[in-house]
Design a protein that fits this description.
It contains 9 helices and 4 strands, in the order αββαααααββααα. The protein has 221 residues and is mostly helical.
């Protein structure tokens, strides 16, 4: 519910769901997912029994941290208390970093959900609401928390200097996509960029600026 504090078993389940994915922090893959730290392959080649067992161990680790009130100095003790249950291929250094990350980054951000109603009332009064990125914390984007902020996103359709600086980077990802990496080990020297627009979908003046950086054009002024 809105502005409801997340505690107890609900907080354990929520953090467990967030930590399944790799944590993208500072624009990089800073820490792996919890199940990956416990030795589980994310390639989809693990048995259901193995996945359930690793999930049970992960839940136990977070439940122990909940009991320890998510104190960072309890991380090492929690790992040692569960050492008998950890898989042989568990990566303890990564596991330790991830649990500390949960204590120092995720839990404090979840604790700020109580301000949601205050933020809504402030917005209705015309007050300032700080901006925050959009996304899903369940996909490793913990920086979208805390809630109660204005979402922002950089659209390549906008006509501004900042977008022009960002367009070359977004265009560079097109020929060097995951599909390309699977089929070739080198960056393609030539590739096609079809450019067209339907009047009801997007006017040419909106589509063309998105294609120009692909052709080496840059904004001026």
């Amino acid at each position: 519910m809105l502005a409801e504090a997340v505690t107890g078993d609900m907080r354990v389940e929520l953090v467990l769901a967030m930590l399944r994915a790799r944590q993208l922090w500072g624009g990089e893959t800073a820490v792996p997912g919890l199940r990956e730290s416990l030795g589980l392959s994310e390639a989809g080649d693990e048995s259901r029994t193995r996945v359930d067992e690793v999930e049970r161990i992960a839940h136990g680790l977070l439940a122990d941290l909940e009991a320890a009130e998510w104190q960072t100095d309890a991380v090492e003790r929690v790992i040692e208390d569960n050492a008998a249950y950890l898989p042989e291929d568990a990566r303890r250094d990564e596991l330790r970093s991830l649990l500390v990350f949960a204590c120092t980054e995720i839990i404090p951000r979840l604790a700020r959900t109580e301000r949601e109603i205050d933020q809504i009332l402030r917005a209705l009064r015309g007050g300032f609401i700080e901006a925050g990125p959009s996304g899903s914390p369940m996909r490793g984007l913990v920086n979208v928390l805390p809630t109660g902020r204005n979402f922002f996103i950089l659209s390549t359709r906008s006509r501004c200097r900042r977008v022009w600086r960002g367009r070359p980077a977004s265009c560079w990802r097109i020929p060097w996509s995951p599909a390309t990496r699977r089929s070739t080990a080198s960056i393609p020297s030539q590739w096609a960029c079809p450019c067209g627009a339907r009047r009801r979908c997007a006017p040419p003046g909106m589509t063309l600026p998105r294609c120009l950086p692909c052709w080496g054009a840059a904004g001026v002024g």
